[in-house]
Amino acid sequence: MMNIKKTIGFWVVGLLLCTGCSSLDMDPVSEITDKNYWKTPEQFESFVYGLHARFRSQSWNFFLLGEARSDVFGDKPFGGEAAQGMERYPLNTLNADNPGLKAYGDLYQNLNQMNLFIRRAETAEVLSEPVRHYYLGQVYGLRAYYLFQLFCSWGNVVFTEEPSLDFEMGQLAREATPAAEILAQVKRDLESSLTHFGADYSFHDQRSLWSKAATLMLKGEVYLWGAHREGGAADARVAAEALDDLRQHMGTSELDLLPSYQEVFAYRNKGNREMIFVLHNQLFEYQLWNGNNDLYPQADYLDKYYNADGTPIDLKVENNWGIMRLMVKLDNFRRFLPGDTRRDVTLKDVYRRTPQGNLELVGLYPHKYPGVMNGSTRVRCDDYPIYRYADWLLMRAEAKALLGEDPSAELNAVRRRAFGTAYAEATVGYPHQSVDRHPLEAILQERFFEFLLEGKRWNDLRRWGDATVVAHTLAAADRLWWPIDRKTLTDNPLLKQTPGYETGGHTEHVGR
User: Fold this and answer.
1) How many other C-beta atoms can be found within 10 angstroms of the C-beta atom of residue 473?
2) Is the pTM higher than 0.70?
3) Which residues, 6 or more positions from 439, have their beta carbon under 8 angstroms from its beta carbon?
4) Which sign does the torsion angle of CA 183, 179, 455, 393 carry?
5) What is the domain range of residue 450?
């Protein structure tokens, strides 16, 4: 039933987009179509499902925004495939002509539909008050998430709370809203979401629908961003309070770490108690990252390589076919400590034999999302986590470290699960690793190991601050935001290129 609702909802949201498109892909809604909708509770429900389905369809863009420019990637594909411009992400050589993502990653399409839903739901007489409030809690939370991603990526971006209804295209051009105002809007939307959810902390549809728990996680993330900057301890306390609110209202049967890291992502284990909010994928319905295969090798050559034990790679097992454009850096495989189970769950290591007969590590590709077999073909249809309980633990540890408190309980819970039977607190527990001399650096490193290939690394580095990004990546200090593609600038003459990417030099920085 959930799959049918999402399919219908995606169709409905698409139907309410007219064929014209704007400079920001804020597709205007047909006024005639809009007036003929919103007649029944089922139509509102379908629209909410449609917003989530469109979110899912943009998962690859969210992944690129959150991870592609980080230190995760950077080595050339071991099969010799041409990167076809995707090397610009980890090399951080993006510009207006090679922006990586065009039209702000198409995020405005769904953002406009959220504006429309909020306007209609706030006055709809066909909805009961509990249903109205729950839907508005969801959509204000979703809008806050989208706006925060735009803020983290571009800083100054166009925003209006008004849906685009029956206007002429030439009237759409708008100046960007300053980054500080975008962040303020994110915070207002978070509070609106929490107010509408009230005391309802429930999960629905295998945790694939936005919930109060998701809003509280996002609030923690937003205020931790500020805590690393001018917000300081005050913002760290707000983040801690939001995270504690979530923990206090959910028992361990509803929210906890799973004993096995591998089981967190297992196809048969969807909606497990570690997940807080996921983008749901399903065999015969929808594939991970909208079916993108740029991180996976081709079948044509994979069986010419070897496993770590020297046996040839079996294509009946490792049949994750793709055309690799981005490869995880080999050094990242070596960063994991011995006994850390997350390494082999997350990454598949590929070897070649040297002329001397030795095995040499030459390639890596994702193993975290193994999918399922459909006949002789492996289909990547695992859920994609946006928030899970391990994130709660490490954000809570982060807030503690920023406040000068002891983060050992949360950090060691994550490490204990990671090492399993190999866990020895005296050697790998906090504060006994060498990195633990600097608690925030230890938490940042733990987040790397825990969330590799979950679209978080670049945004984590950005949250920690400009110097951290420059120290870990190839990004220049004045190019930590994303460029705006040339077509978008042409279509909207009131927009200005992101500072740092203008032809001819440097301008003032927007708020970080």
Assistant:
1) 20
2) yes
3) 401, 407, 431
4) negative
5) 205-280+385-465
